[in-house]
Each structure stands twice: as C-alpha cells, then as structure tokens.
Protein 1
Amino acid sequence: MTAPTMLDNVVAEEIINVIRSKFDLDAASKIEVKSIEVDQEEHKIRIEILITTTERPEALAKGYFGLTGKVREALGSDWSGFFPVITPQINSGMHA
Amino acid sequence: MPDAKLADGHLAVARRLATTKRPTQSEIRRSISSAYYAVFHALARTCANSLVGRTPSQRPNKAWVEVYRGLNHGVCRKACEQANTVAFPACIQEFADAFHQLQEYRHKADYDPDIKFSKADGETWYEIARLSMSSLRSANNVDKKAFAAWVLISTQGAKNARKANNAN
C-alpha cells in the first residue's frame, strides 16, 4: 500500500483538536494551526502552530511534552511511517 | 576524569540566555541550541552509565568515554523517530519524541535566518529540555539500558535482531 500524499480534512481537524486539548490553555489564549505539510522525502508531517497566550513557559512546555504521541495517534495507521514535527511559535504579546 | 555534568551545564546556559531581560535573537538562538545539547549530553551520559557503569572507580573510564562519544546526532534522531515501534515506557517514548523535536528546532535556531524567535520561545524550549531530562532520568535501569542500545547500535545485525524480537 502506498502512503497518501496529503492529509484529509478529518485527520487535520482531529490533529487540531488534539493540540488544543493537550495544551489546555485558558480561554484568553489562542492556538492556531498555521500549516500542516507532508514531507514525502523525509517522511515527516510538519505542523506549524501559533500560540498567543499569557501562560507561563512551564505550562506551555507541559502542554507540548507528550504531544507528539497524541498527534501520532490522531494520524492513525495510514501515516505510521511519518514523524509529526510540531513547531510552535509563541506570541506572548498579550502581556502589554 | 570526564565531566559528567555537561548536560546540567548546557541547561543552565539555556536558562540564563532565555531569561535575560531583553534577549537578542542570537541569545535566544543560542539558548535553544543549548537546550538541545543539554538533552543530547543527558542521553550520552545515560548511555555510558547504563552500559559501562555509573561509579568511576568501578568501571573502565576509557570505555565510558567511548560510549559517551559514540552517540551520533543523526543516528540517534532516526532511532528516536522509530522508538514508538517498540514497547518503551512512556517516560522514554516521550523523551525520544522530545529529543527529535528539539533537534529539528535546534537546526532552525542555528541555521534559518528567516525565523524571528520570541523570548517565550526560548523559555519554553528550555522548559521542554528540562522536562525531557527529568523524564529520561525517571526511567528504570533496565529500560535505560535497552534505550541506550537502541540509540547507539544501528548495524544491520542489530536491525535483524530487532525484527526477530518484534516477530516473537
């Protein structure tokens, strides 16, 4: 069986839900998934997220640690050979 | 005597650079890089302690250094990428995943001039490295030995043995 070349909307939506749930940030915070790209050459799924929050780095790190496994589960067996590279960009601009 | 505290030293540097009042881009980038190297050295030390011995007076110290320095960034990343295919406990699996993510991010911090990092990025990756090291250290000795073999040995023979183990 050949690997699919792009994520379907259901899987992408599931990944977004998993990310939001794992971080579990307060209502004033915002998590946006900027992009999800499949890198066929490297066998990676590159997920870029933008987090706008006043939460402490300790809380953000706790949310991130263990997230890879949850995203891997959400990707399911079709993507079992692909590693999800999750890159957060943290905007703490709400401090002002 | 080898310096066995490099991991904690790199982690302290990562913290210092990230928590400076107004860190420059170079300081944040060096902080992220140090966070990765903290985790790398923590793993190298775990490998050497697990496979050769923890107590300097009761181990061959040259062999300890050889194992410590035997850890290769690329081979280790690949091994961490595939750690979920075997039954490592959560503390090691989560370490392996974080190691891979830290290495990816370290490459961006070291080489990609297009990215602008925030102070919060540096502080958060320092915390991720700290959690990763703590997670690895919480593993029991048997699992540390198994993981050390997993990240250090990538010969065809080892791969064949792993295939056979998975089949049983």
Protein 2
Amino acid sequence: MVLKKGALYLLLLALAAFTTFPFLWTLLVSLRTRGPIFSIPPDLSLTGLSAANYLGVWNTLPLPRYVLNSLYIAAMGVGLTLVVCSLAAYPLARMRFPGRNVVFYAIIATLMLPEHIGLIVNFITMMRLRLVDTYASVYLPSVASIFGIFLLRQAYLSIPQELEDAARIDGAGELTIWWRILLPLTVPALATLAIFQFVAFWNSFLWPIIILKTPDKYPLAAGLLYLRGLFAHNTRFIAAGTVIATLPIIVVFLFTQRYFMRGITAGAIR
Amino acid sequence: MPVRLRSTVIAYLFLLPALGLLAVFTFYPVVYGTVLSLFEYDIINPPRYVGGQQFQRLLGDRYFWIAIANSAKYILVVPVIQLGSILLAVLVNRRLRAIGAFRAAYYIPVITSWPVVGIMWTWMYDQQGIVNWILRSLDLISRPISWLSHPTIALYAVMFVTMWKGLGWYMVIYLAGLQSIPTEYEEAAMLDGASRSAVFWRITVPLLRPYVLLASLISTMAAVKVFEEIYVMTRGGPFFSTYTMFMYIFDEAFQELNMGYAAALAVVLAAVILVFSVVNFRVFRSGGLEWY
C-alpha cells in the first residue's frame, strides 16, 4: 500500500516536471550571467546566481513601457467587460420583454462564428474609424465577452425572486434594483470574469501586433516577441523578460485557482 | 408610457452596449468578410468586384493546398491530447495530500502566453537543448535533431507543444465530468463484485462520453485553425512544412495586404469550422451536458 502510494507520487512528480520544466530552466538561465546556455549535458547547477539580467533588461530595453501598456490595456478591457456584460446579462436573466429569446440565441450563435474573419474585417473597421494604432482598438473588440454574458446571466438567474419583489414593493426603480440589490450578489461571478479577462488581455499578442503599428505601444506578450526578434543573441535578457511576463500571471493564478476552475466548468468557451 | 413598453425599452437599453459591440465586431465581420471575398482589395485602392475569381484562383494555388494539408494533419493532435488529459484527470481525481498543487502545476502551461511558450520551447528544441539531451541520455537518438528546422519533423514538434499547453485545460473539463458522476453507481457495482478496471471501463467511461465528444470537437476546431504556436515558433517554415490555413490568411492579409484573397481563404476555413461547430452545437445541446 505504501509502495503503491509512493509510485503514485513519483508519477505525479514526473508529470509536474514535464509541465513546469521549461519554466524552471528559463528561470535558471535568467538568473545566471556566465557559462554556456546550451550544452549537452545542460548545466543545471545553482551557482553564481544574480539579478543582473533583470536589471539589464529592465533598464536597457523598453520592458517597463510594455508592462505599463499591458496594465493599461488590461485595466480598461476588464473594466469595460464587467460593465458591458453585467448590463447585458441582467435583462436576459430577469426581465420579460419581446425578443428576449431572439437576442439570447443571437448571442449564442456568435460562438459558431469563426473569429479569424474578424481579424481581417476588424482591421478594416478600425482603419475606417481611424482607431488603428490606439490602445482602444486593442481592447474594444473583446469587451462584449460571450463567456462573460453567460457567466453573469447564470449568476443573476440564481438570485431568489423574493429579494427583487421586496424592493419593488418598496418602490425601487429598475436601475436601483439592478445596482443596489442584484449587482452586489453577482460579485463572485464578476471576480471570475475579471480574472479570466485579465489573463486574456495580459497574454494577448496576435490582435495587438496586427492593430498596433508602433512597437512602443505593444503589451508585454507582443513586446517580448518583438524583442526576441531584435535581440535573439541575448538569450539571458530574453529569459529575464520571459520570467517578468509570466510571473504575475502565475501568482494571480495561484491565488485565485478556485475561480479559475469554477470559470472553466461553468462554461469557459476557450 | 405604458408599463410594458417602458420595461421593454429599459431592457434594450441595458442590452445596447453589448449588442452594439457584437454587431460591429462579431456579426458585421462575417457578413462583410463574405462580401469581401468577391472583391480585390489592397486597402489603398477601393475594392474592385471580381466575382468568384478568387475562389477559382484558390483551387490552383499551391500554397492553399499545402496549408489545407497541414491544417488537416494537425487534427492528429486531437486523440493524443484527449487520451492524455482523460488519463491525467483520472489520475488527479482522488483525495490525496497536495493533489491541489499537482493540478495547479499541470494547469500552468494553459495560463501562459503563446509568445512565452514559443520562446521557451524554441530553447528546449535547440540542437544542444534539453529535448536532445533527454533523448540522447535515454539512447533514443544517436545525434541531436534540429526539431524546428527539419521539414518532416517540425510540424510534429509544434504539435507536441500544442499538447503540452492544452493538457491542463482538458484535464479540468474531464475532472468536472468525473466529479459529476454520482459515486453510487460505482459503489453499487463494487458491491456486486465488479473489479476496479471493470468499473472504470463499464461505468466511468460511458458516463464521461458527452464530455469526450464535446472536448474532442473543441479540440478539432482548434487544430483546424491552429495559428499561435506556428507563428511563435516556425512562422510556417521550414519550406512551408508548418504552413497552415490561418498562417496563410495572416500572411495574405497583413503581409501582402491582399484583403480580398485573405477573405476568400477565411471563408473556406470558416465553412470547414462551421461544419464542426454545428455538430458541436447539436452534441452539447443533446448530450445531457449543461454547458451554459
């Protein structure tokens, strides 16, 4: 029995090594300043560690700029997502009006629409709106999140009707009921959505490199790819940049794991 | 204003921002993109109507067929990911000390950005890199392989990274599936004297079926329109051996500025994906899965 348990843990550990080794190796490379980076066998010793590469990449490359870009885009994107999706989910869950089902199914149907056409046409649209190369063009297309609308609709549906009726008897209007009574009860779902959207915006690179023409406006993920193209030879700097780009997301994830798992199983689409 | 009309107006006011954004950035692209596939458009000059010409050109376009073939080949990754993630889910679906930490470790690649994954795995795949070191230590290869610059290997090397990044996501889906199965079934079977493996194959797997179907379809659609991993590791090379449909669309639209031709390619890809989507939609609506 003990032996069996030991074998099980050994298997779990081996799999964990498989999924995390590239990160650990990158971390090690970023913390060293000398010695061969690639060698067979690899040098995995933990000697001569220093933060020099981090200081170097932070001071000589536009990394702080990329971090600020990412934070700004993520803040605007997440904020607008929460507002837009909350507003849309409320009537879909709790109001009766003609056309409700049509609207609901139209929103579901967008899941079947291929998003790669969106890349082409949204670029043209942004051009016509004169929004190419602006931060707004980066976050605007993803603000009306279908996943968000569903998640919040589910949250509104689970609130007992009595609560709303009581407020209505007291003479509260539609906006007051939503803002004062119902919205506060959807906070856990809002947190889940905020975390998902934050990670999505932080990690996005494809749409930003299409719509932003000035590399100085790139969010971190896109900027990192751009820097790799320019400084391919400086592996240690790029490794440090990679760690800087990844660490915040891993920290956010470790602290909010519960929301992540709930979000996926509650109907994450991608 | 009558009460009914008033509440309808209020409802639509709430919906307005979301519907407006969806109309502009989600619905309109499909309509305009389809129309655009009948035009030649290079952004600088106004669109010129050419009818079905671009679809005809596409049939004789060598790169189109290369891209279609590679996108189709990419579906090979689906059974591997699904089998792997089912086994992973079964493995972590138990009460065990520190099991949460292991689940988290398996999920970390999922939340990592593609540029980071691409950069890291380009290093892993280096001639003198970790992958070659491990395989040589195990005596599986006699000399180092340049994984990402070998025309017959590169596509599979990229697929391996797709699997590495995707396993954790599907694991969570299957974990939810496993936990939705009432333990009574398994307990009852055990009481009747069924063996552990019989319980797994006769009870657990059949009950997991809707999840397997759904996950496989999602995974197939993702494989057909694979792009990010290709872009960050090989950009379609070497010699177009990893050139996929989405990669071709991206190049035509944003490198060559052939928006019309890119739209025609996108319409073809959309048609393929739509078939899978419709199947997907029917499956999860009828499969007893409360997906939303």
Protein 3
Amino acid sequence: MRTRKLFVTITAVALTMAPVIVLAQQKGLTVPFVKTVIPVDPGWTGWKTAPALEVLLGPQVIAQPWALTPSITRLTMKAVHNGTWIAFRLSWKDATKNAVMYTDTFRDAVAIMVPVAKEADITMGAAGKRVLILHWKADWQEDIDKTFQDVAQLYPNAWADWYPFAPGEPPYDITAWTNPEARRYLTGWVVGNPRSQPAKRTAVEEQIAEGFGTLTTSERQSAAGKGVYADGEWSVVIARPFITGDPNDPSWAPGQTVPVSFAVWDGAKGEIGSRKGISTWVPFRLARSGR
Amino acid sequence: MATVKNWQIGREMAYPYPETRPQRQFAAVFDLNKCIGCQTCTMACKTTWTVGKGQEYMQWNNVECKPYGGYPMGWDVRLLEKLGPQPWEGSRFAGKTIFEAAPTGERVLGFTPEELDWSYSNAGEDEAAGTLDKGAYETMPEHKLWFFYLPRICNHCTYPACLAACPRQAIYKRPEDGIVVVDQSRCRGYRECVKACPYEKVLYNPVLRISQKCIGCYPAVEQGIQPRCVTTCIGKIRLMGFLSKPEEAKADRPMDFLVHLRKVALPLYPQFGLEPNVYYIPPVSVRREFLRQLFGPGVDHAIETYLKGKDDPELLGMLHLFGDTKEIIESFRTFPASGEAAGYDKKGREIVRVPVKEPDYLRPFYDAARQVYRHNIS
C-alpha cells in the first residue's frame, strides 16, 4: 500500500516536470548460473555472453534535497551467479571521471539495493523493512588503484612543517600515523568512519537502511568490487556472496526472484547523497544452480 | 516544515524541525570596538583543534576585515545577493529567511564555496571603505573612512542550517549546552551542511572526507571554562556564557544583561533566520547602513547605549569583566561605591573582581630617593 502511494507521488511529481522522465515498470532480468569463479573485473570475458538489461534512472524527489534532473538516466546492467556469489556489472556513459573529492568536488558512484525483509520500499526501505545497499565509490577505487589520497596526493605543492606527534618527516604520510597521540587529530579515522580509513580493502561499502537518512555501514563487509573508467564510460563490478551468515543477508538464493534497484551519482554535477538518479525495482530471476 | 519562534526577527518562521531549545544555550559577546585583528584567537583555535591532516586550510575561528574581507571570500555578500533585498519592518523581519527562500526540493538556500575561496582569509585586511576626499576631516562617532575586524566562530545557532540540511541527521545540538557538533562517525561528507551554513562555519576535510566544525571547546565548557578563543584574546573583547530566552532573562547573567536587557550586543545577520548565538557590540565608528545590514535594526540603540556606558555603572562593570577570568561567569555584580565589578561561578563563588577604574597615582616630578625625574602618564 505504502509503495503504491509513493509511486503515485513520484508519478505526480514526474508529470509536472520537463523533460518528463518515465519511471515505468522496468523489465526484469534472468540471472544465469555460471559454473566458474567470477573474477571481480569488468573486463572478464564471461560478461560478453551475459544477458544485459537497460535500466532507466529517474529523479530522486522523495527525500530532500532532491535531484530533479539527474545527470545519468540510463544504466546497462548485467548479472551472473555461481551458486555462491552473485555479481553485477554496471556500466554507464559519463563524460568525466570524478574520483577525487576536494572541498568543492564530488565523486562518481553507483549503488545496488536489495530487500532484506520480505517487503520492500523504494525509499531505501522503511522501519521494519530493511534493505541491503552495496555502494561502489570512485574515490575508494582510486585509493585502492593508486594510493590513499593524502595531502601529498591531493595537493602536491602543499607543504606542512609539522603535525603534532606525527612520525616521520614531511609530507608525513598518514598511513604511518600509528601512534594514538597523532591519530587523535584524525577524528574520522579514530572513530572508525569507513570514509576516513587510509587502508581500504574494497571499493564497495556494504550497508543497511530502514528509510532515507538511516544508511548504516554493516558490521560485516563481504562485498567486493572494481570500477574502470575508459572511453567516457564507467564499468563497475559489484559482487557479494548470497549468504554470509550476517543477519542482514537478503533472502535471496538461486531459483528465486528478488527485486533489485539502482542509483547512480555523477560527481561532476555535484551529485552526492540523496542527489542521485534512481531506478524502480527490477525483478531478478536467479537461475537455479546447475552442474 | 515546522513553525518556530525566532525572537531575533520578531516573528515565527519555517524550520524543518519543531522548536526544541537546549537546557542552556552557549553564547558569546564580542566587542568589535576593541578587536585589533591580532589573530591570537585564530592561532589558539588552530593549534588546539585544526592541526590534523586535511585541516590545513581550516579556521574554525577567523578574523576578517570588513567591508572587503571574508573567509571564505564573499561568503556573506554572495548569499545576500542570492536572497535579494529583504525588508525589515521595525524590529520585525518581513523578508524571507534562508529556510523560507529555499528552492524547490531543498531545505535551505545556500551555496558551496569554491576551493580557492578559502585561500584568502586576510583579503581586504586594513582596507578602508572608500577614499578620503581632499579637505575631508574626521567625524565622530561615525567615521567617513572606516574598516573594522570581524572575528567569527560557529554561532551555535538555535536553528542551525547545517543541522537542518543534513539528510542523515549527523549534526546535532547538544541538549546540555546548545553546542552544535558534527558526528564524525555518522558524517558521510555530503557537504549539504557546508552549502547550507550561511556563515560558512562547517568545513570539509578532504583527507578524512567528512565535515568538521567549531565544537565550542565543549571539553572546556563542560568544566566551567570558557573556550580557547575567548580566554586567549589579548584585547579582552570576548566573553562566553549562557543565554536565556528573552522572556526568561535575568539581570545578573552576563549574556542576558548584554543581549536582552541593555541590548548592546547583536546577532550577526539575524535576517538569515538561524538565531545565531554569538553577539556583537557594533563598532561605533562604522557607517550605520552597513552595520544594520550585518546586525539588524538594533544597531542604533546598541551604539547609543554603548556610548553612554560611562554613565551606566552596571554596563561599565560588566564590560570590565571581559577577558579577566578563564572560568565561565554565571552571574555578576557591580559595586559602585568601591568602583568594582565581580563575577561568580555556578555555586555563587566569587571567581573574579576587577576595578572599573584604575586608581590614579600622582607621583612627584623628582624622586629624591632614587634621584630620578618622572613623567606622569595616564
């Protein structure tokens, strides 16, 4: 009932806008079984034969601040599973690669949402209707592909003589700050905020939510991912085991159909947080595991 | 949107959350007539709180020089331009606050400064407004040629725009003292707060990828100690305390006395609608039109009262307690007979006593004992 009401709201808002972005029911996708280890690599040859689905992305106009005219409106999506892992390959056209966040720039990103509860709301879940969100971020990918974006990487010409208790010498590589006296000045790192951690193991943050504004990093991080930018296009693989033993695992398994939805952020247009293009639920028919 | 009461604009206004005032509200009064722009406050804050990575550009406390200075550059004029002319009708603001002027789908009208805007914190320093014509002479109290220093920290607003704009409620206002803080574990660096705060006092840390701001030196405040920028001020222009609602103001509370009773200290850009809690005694020599834009319609009364301060023993006594103790003065008293003023802590214990007028000593021109001549100076 709630979902329907929201859909009506979205449609009503969408109709008042130009250009009208259609949020029609997406076609579903049958996710084939592959009898192989799935590499976390958008260039994997197995993706060539995987079925593709065009996913339409519309404005996010439910939670403020809105994205009335999201930059990215189309996403090409592929998915395969090997009985244990499910992997998504998401690709979209983006004229600029945005992977560095200065004070006034934002990064590109993509996210997948799957219901944990039996029922699901497109509003990032709702109270008692939890969702799992796998969020790939271009800046985390940059940290992994190159090195953590410390001051020396962000501002190569900057110079600081001294940071209190910092070991070593200029430019005082942050990864060497193991002593608590120095780290007390790195609030986000000390309190365990995943964004502030210099050593990132994956470019995908696994999260749960029960409605807008409740996004919470999962205690257990099981998702893997890799994004590559080439020829004006992002190609991102996000993979996760179906079941990890986490109480927040979705109730998904080979042979079932689950709704999945997507969001894309274009950093060049200042998209971050709720400023994003979103899809409706897309039904995923997970093929039975074969031999 | 809820409807809340904002006494600074003399009316109710729209705000995303209902009115919930803290048990006590952090407040401070800065006397702009005494600020010399020495930046000791800036350095005290810098060395205490923003010496970490990604904080190199950050000044939670800054002192800019008006009319041309700004950190970040043009922070106030750019927002004023976006808002357009907004009228006051007496002490009632008849225009739109930044919440009421928010575009469709947004909670607050704001803008994100460009990175380079943060790089000129001393721009416009000591640059006077206008040029001096030939044959011009100085007028009192308002000067034809003027500039003044504007020290700024987070205003720990009653209705913070940063808090209103955060889609994840990662910013909260402490119920015990009204200090506004960013939860460093909850923040995701969306920078909606950076965009929304009209005072541009939430800053993004590009290394930690989260936002940070002035924390009102809450570890000190919790122990009854005033913030670093206040206690280190060599010009003794600052006093921190707690402010009551206007209808609950008490005459012996320093903040209540200065803000609600004498009304010599005024909020910065009250028309933005945040009910900011750092109050300024306006500089008497500055062009009134400019001051009214910054501090609202109370400017003329504030300056008039301030200039008559020499005949107001209570006000004079209160102003002399600025910068004389690091402890938070909960209440004060003046002793006209002895020419003194005293401040008291929460338990009523006297923590400071100062002479309002230094005693005169007249010494002989020739000191026979030391065989020296002396000049008497004031």
Protein 4
Amino acid sequence: MPNLAIERWAKSSDYPPDAPIVLTVEGTHGPIIHAVTKAAADRGARTGARLTDARALDPAVVAIPADPEGDAALVERLARWASRWSPLVEVDGADALRLDVSGVAHLFGGEAALVRDIERCFARIGVTARIAIAPTAAAAWAFSHFGGGDLAPLHVSALRLDADTIRTLERLGLKTVGALMDVPRLALARRFRGAENVVAALDRMLGRTPEPLTAAPTDPLPRALLKLEEPATHPEAPGQALDRLIPGLVQQLQERHLGVRRLSLTGYRVDGSLAIAAVATAIPTREPKHLQRLLAEKAAALDPEFGFDAFTLTAEWTETLDAAQDSLAEEPSGERELARLVDRLTVKLGPKRVRRPQAHESHLPERASGWVAAVQSSPSSLGEGDRSKSGGGVWRRPLHHASHGSPPRASSGRNRPQRLLDRPEAIDVIYATPEGMPRRFVWRRAVHDIARVEGPERIAPEWWRQPSGARLRDYYRVEDAEGRRYWIYREGLIGDGRGGLPGWFIHGLFE
Amino acid sequence: MLLPKAPQPSLSELFAGHPRDGGWAGFLLAQLAADKPLLWVQDRMAILESGRVHPPGLRTHDLIHVEARDARDALWAMEEGIRCAALSAVIGEIWGDPRALDFTATRRLAVAAERSGVAAFLIRLGGHANLSGARMRWRIASAPSLTNQLDPRAPGLPAWGAELFRARGHPPGRWTIAHEADRFHLVAEPGDRALGEVERLSA
C-alpha cells in the first residue's frame, strides 16, 4: 500500500484533490517529507526529501504533519479486514500486509483471481494496493515494492538491507539480486560478517530458510456456517438450521478436544441485521442431543422478518474436554446429569431463578443464606473436594449430616428456621414487659397465642457493613397454641438511642 | 413405628394444614435419606406467602432451588427434575388451586416419577384436594411439640399431625408423630401429653 498515508489523509481533509500537499515528519535537520499528493509529486516533492528542498523547488507546497500512529492503526485494521482472504495475516513494516495464501487461492478461483479480488476490494475502500504472490514472503515483498516477476534483475535494495550495506554492495558492483546470487556463498558470508547478514536475506528470499508468519491469530472459535440458497422466512427455519449445524460444530469440538460452555446461534437476515440466540451450560459439553435441546426453544423464537440467508453456530466459550470424558457421556453420570438439568432449567427460567445455596460467614440470617446461580458455579468448584469419597458425585455432604455424627455448624440445625421470609414482616406483639417474652402476636390479621417460647438469641448488627443506625435483634423461637413454630424478633432495645420503641418482626417458619 | 410408604418412588401430595404452617417440611425432610441433591421448586406465591427455603435450617445444603413464576413453570421444572436420576427427590410447592394443576398434570408427574425412580412431592399450600393422580395424599399440620427436657417453657422436638386420606394400597389413617433418631414415633394427642411421653419412651 504505497500511498496509504496520503490516501488516509485525503479522506479526512477538505483540501481540493489537486492541491500540492506533503505530509511531513520531524527529522534531525528539520521536517522530512513522509508522503506526497500527486500534485505535489508533479512539482518535484519526493518522499524522504527535506521539506526545505521541496519548498525551494516550488514554494506553493503545503506541509501538514503526518500521523504515523494513525497510519499504523489503519494498517492493523486492514490486517484484520484482510483475514477474509487468509487466516494468517501479518503487518509487514509500515505499509505492507503479508498473507499466507498457501492452499487458499483455489477458494477464490486460482491465484490470479485472488489477486483480482484483493485489488477490487482495496479499490472499493480507496486504498492503492500493489499485490504480489510469490513462493517466499521476502520475494513477494520485493515484487510488490519493485515490480516484475523475476528476482534476478531486481535491485539489491529489494533484499531489505540497510542503506550502508546496499551502498557497499553497489560499490562492489553487485547491483542486482541476480549478481549477488552468482557470488559464492562462502565469500559473501565472509565479506558481510557484520550487522546485516546478506546471506540470510538472500536465503529468505530464495526460500532456503523458512520465514513463517509470526502473527498467527488466536485460535478461531469453533463455528459452523450454513448458507441458504434462498432467504428463509418460515418460523421453523432457525430450528432446522440448528439441526444441520450441530453435527459440524460437534465434529470441530471433538477434533480440538473442547466442550461448550456458551453457545450462540446467529441468524443473518437479508437486510443485514442479526438475530442471536445464546445459551450457557454448567459444565463443558459437546453432546449433540443436549445442545439441540438447549437451543431449540430459543432458536424457534428468532424472528425471520424479511428472511434469513445464513446461520452460524458459534461456541463462544469453550473448555477442554478430553476424549475420555466424552466416552463417559454415553453412560449417565450424576454430575453430568445434574449439569444438564441445571442447563435446561436455566435456559427456560433464567439464571436468577435457578440457584444453589452458598453459605456466607455471617450471623445475619438473610446474609448467611446466600444463593448463587446454579449455572455459574464453575465445574471445578462443583466437583472439588472429596469427589472420590462420595462416589463421583458433585454433592459432598450427606443429607443428614447431623444424624451421621458429624457436628452441625453453629448456625444450622434446629435453631434456624427451614423457611425465611424474603423481607421480615412487621407484627403486633403483646408482651408482659417490653424486654420480656412475647405472649401473643398478630401476623397478617391472624392471632397467634404463644404457647411456648425460647429465647432470646441476640444477633448484633454487623457494624462494619450496616449503617450506624442499625439495631440489634433479639430472636425468639415461638410455638403457638396449634403447634406452628415461628421465628420472630424484636428490633432494638428501649433506650439504645437508635429509634423509638422496639419493633417486632416475623422472619421465619420452623418445621 | 413405620408410616405407610409407597412401594416404589412416585408422586405424593402433601397438603399443608395451614398455608403459613411450615410443619410439612419437617415431616417430609425426615423421610428423605439419600446422599443425592434435592430439587426444590417454589412458585412465586408460595415464596411470598410462606417464605423461601432457608438452607442453614435444613440438614442438607445440597439442593437446587427453582423460583418459578407460576404453577405452569413449577410443574415443568418438577417434571424436568423427575427425569434426572441424579436427584434424590423433587419437591414442588404450589400455592392455591391454579388452573394448570389438574388431574392430567399430576398424573404426568406420577408416571414420570415411577419411570425414573425419583420421588416427587407436590406441596399444596392453601389448596383444595381435587382430583389428583398422586399415589399418596397427606394432610400435614404442625402439632404441639414434645416436652423440652432442658426448658419446659421452650418448644421441643417438633411433632406433626399427619393424615393419610388417600393412598393406593393403604387404608387411610391419622397419626400424631415426631421424628427422632431416624424413626417416626407415635405421640398422643396434645390433651394427653403425659401419656404420649410414656408411649414414646417405651416404643
């Protein structure tokens, strides 16, 4: 892309196209011309010359500071854009891109057609491109910068050596690559032992040493693509596309030993808009039936509007899943089954409605019973601990750990209710003395005579977390005349300086 | 004492004696003994009216809790859970008498539970005992608890009044029971507490 800088500048400027503009960068002895417009070139301005020299030739030349960082960013963007032709694209210098097109050209109908396609696309975005395909990257660079189809007549600067070395070569009379090729290697190596290795440059160009592209992009996501001959407008189209895409994706996952954690089906509508259905799974999986079940309902809800003309199924988040684990999938194992159940429930009801308990170190009951979305608990945390002891299950504690002799935790067991109201509800309480036991309470207009009561259990506010006005709570386990057991508390004490009379609340129900 | 038990895991229906009576949970959890997790489904009204499951009060923390929008979602989640053999049991709480909960729905659950071997418990809070496909139908109410040996004024071991009013292969019956040391014990009616204590100790 020989004119990239000036073309980028011209797109965003309001100078007339025939103005004699030069873009300059600061050099040691004043501004140096970085790029020139055609009009400026006609007036004698040359890239690499000093601005004062160009001004001496024609005072009308307008100098504008160049923006090498912006140019480099554009080259980076073009490199990503160029991945449409090849998965391996590398930025080469300030103005060039290298594409590894091995085994790619036939997709575009041969190398000539590929070059034509690239030319057309670059012309469409208004960037002049000189394109060359050669067996080695160095040769391609030489052809694209110096033209021609044969290495031998090219000037030695096509080898991308530094200026001093080139001057030395010219003094020796070695002006072309061909002349250099005729010199015995040993003599060349001995003569140019210093900084720039001429032999190595020659070897790179002739393919004697490999020069692989280093900028291999990150692994592309496993993805399956389905292009439709005709836009599909019927509502079953996404579901049918899903059925056809899953085998391809699963095969890719198998080859790369991956399992899906997040999967999305994208429908490309004819008007350029997208429709996306995405699901997440609790453990990595690549079982076709499971993936199909997860996505089917959401896929059916995609609105075709004017019709879909393509679908992709992308595994957006994958984790390693070995072949051994794959074979386990054939027989139902507890962990896998549970994860599938969580997936199905979560897809339909949403992650906030399918949760697992997560204990917090807190004395406040509503904080102690934390919940975490079941699908978010990662498989490592699900499966950690004494998995081997409990027979491969995800679930570590036996149900009745109290009755199996292991001591219950301080905050569990009989002194905590089995059910907790999301918000404590205010109740009216009749008591003997304000600090004493409650005698009777009214909750939701029903009167409960308290037959038995145990308490109080005092829970102080967590001063490091709660506002300073928070009051302590005195919890009572009460049983009414019919035997129903409740957990009520009095908030605050008379004279604690944090409000008026203490209020009473009901917080939980006992079994 | 041995309570009537279904010959194979199936669907049981438990009617809470009062919508704001949590006693059925103790009766139910005492029967579940397994090292596999629970699926506990609650519909929105059940959570609003009688509270959310509170894991610190349970003897297990191995559960998946589902907050269903309505009875339809709750029934669907229960059926999905019943099909998953990795669960020990599925508990579903449904408030009132929703339209979605008819004979066909309960029959579906019963058949699914018998096929997969996962016991299912449908908890009815404030509902009426209409036609149902459940194999056992209980009415569970809290009963005054047993005497607390350490503090006579405090609630003791919980007791329940359990009425089996419809069961396949069992005559209906009514018991007042408590659960201790992995067994249910008969307890006398609250009016005759002293006798009840004696009976429990000699059992």
